[in-house]
């Protein structure tokens, strides 16, 4: 039986380093919001006659009256262009149908005059009111998911002493996973121009579900052991539970990771960020169920933080007495 609980501060310290680094990246750079959260227009254009560089396309957009345009490479001679909200453009939330003539058509004609034949696709516009509503609902969705998980685990483990601790530890683990993913995307947004969109929120919720699922498997095994033998030391119960579920957790996650890697290699540009969130989140979620949720639960049950705080206060009082 592996001694996971005995080395809990090694696991928590390792997680803490990545967690603090992710928080620092978020504080310094923040996430680069996509069109869904900022308002504006976006379209994808592929040039068919000759190679066109990002610098050339940016210069062309400036000459066409859009110096704010952001250009991102997306495949072979293909670029994603984001601008301020274009006039007479359909909303991202509008129904299907032909795109009416508008400012986007003037841009397309201007690009054709400069670079020859092209193909325009994936055009959408989001107004400021719609983007604010999407951001609000996305935030509420994440908060509601965390609250529902806390309540569910609390009820599922109600026959154990202080069952709310299990729910709180699961929420701590999923916050750990979500912050690490967001920190990575803050770094990618700063150095690679990667933006977050509604697919990012969907992927975050998927990662939360996967993380909690893995954590519940471990917690359920702990519950079985504690219920079967109430006198077993809690650390021993956690170690046995983690040892028994370790192979299952790793094998399940490995199958999912291999599938995601294959999709990253052969999939399209439009789902790449979604898959990257899943990849990082599932790896972090597998680790957090072992190295975060379970270890925080052991530290909580053993009152490690309370003992550490009493030790610090005792040293402070001793130093004050010596100074006097």
Write the layout of secondary structure elements.
Layout (H helix, E strand, L loop, with lengths): L7 H21 L6 H4 L1 E8 L6 H10 L6 E4 L4 E6 L19 H13 L2 E9 L1 H29 L7 H29 L5 H31 L5 H33 L5 H30 L2 H20 L1
Antiparallel strand pairs: 1-3, 1-4, 2-3
Corresponding CATH superfamily of the largest domain: Multidrug efflux transporter AcrB transmembrane domain
What portion of the residues fall into strands of 2 or more residues? 5-15%
Q: Cα distance, first to last residue?
A: 51 Å
SS summary, helix count: 10
Look at the structure and give the mean pLDDT: 83
- Note the overall shape: elongated
- Quick one: CATH class of the largest domain? Mainly Alpha
- By helix and strand content, what is the structural category? alpha+beta
Largest sheet: 4 strands, antiparallel
| Uncertain parts | 92-96
Q: What name does the CATH topology of the largest domain carry?
A: Multidrug efflux transporter AcrB transmembrane fold
Can you tell me the number of structural domains? 2
């Amino acid at each position: 039986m592996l001694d996971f609980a005995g080395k809990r501060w090694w696991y928590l310290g390792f997680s803490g380093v990545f967690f603090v680094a992710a928080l620092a990246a978020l504080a310094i750079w923040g996430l680069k919001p996509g069109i869904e959260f900022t308002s504006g227009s976006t379209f994808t254009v592929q040039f068919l006659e000759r190679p066109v560089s990002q610098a050339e396309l940016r210069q062309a957009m400036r000459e066409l009256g859009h110096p704010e345009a952001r250009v991102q490479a997306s495949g072979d001679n293909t670029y994603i262009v984001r601008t301020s909200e274009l006039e007479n453009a359909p909303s991202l939330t509008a129904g299907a149908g032909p795109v009416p003539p508008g400012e986007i058509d003037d841009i397309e004609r201007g690009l054709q005059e400069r670079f020859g034949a092209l193909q325009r696709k994936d055009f959408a516009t989001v107004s400021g009111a719609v983007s604010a509503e999407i951001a609000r609902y996305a935030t509420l969705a994440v908060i509601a998911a965390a609250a529902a998980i806390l309540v569910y685990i609390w009820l599922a483990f109600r026959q154990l002493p202080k069952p709310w601790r299990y729910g709180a530890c699961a929420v701590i683990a999923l916050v750990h996973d979500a912050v690490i993913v967001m920190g990575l995307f803050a770094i990618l947004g700063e150095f690679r121009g990667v933006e977050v969109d509604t697919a990012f929120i969907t992927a975050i919720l998927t990662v939360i579900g996967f993380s909690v699922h893995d954590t519940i498997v471990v917690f359920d095994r702990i519950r079985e052991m504690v219920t079967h033998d109430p006198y077993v030391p809690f650390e021993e119960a956690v170690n046995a539970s983690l040892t028994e579920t370790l192979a299952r957790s790793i094998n399940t996650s490995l199958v999912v990771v291999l599938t995601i890697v294959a999709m990253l290699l052969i999939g399209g540009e439009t789902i790449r960020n979604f898959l990257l969130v899943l990849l990082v989140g599932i790896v972090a979620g597998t680790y957090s169920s072992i190295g975060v949720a379970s270890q925080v639960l052991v530290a909580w049950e053993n009152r490690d933080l309370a003992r550490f705080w009493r030790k610090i206060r005792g040293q402070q009082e001793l130093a004050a007495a010596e100074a006097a």
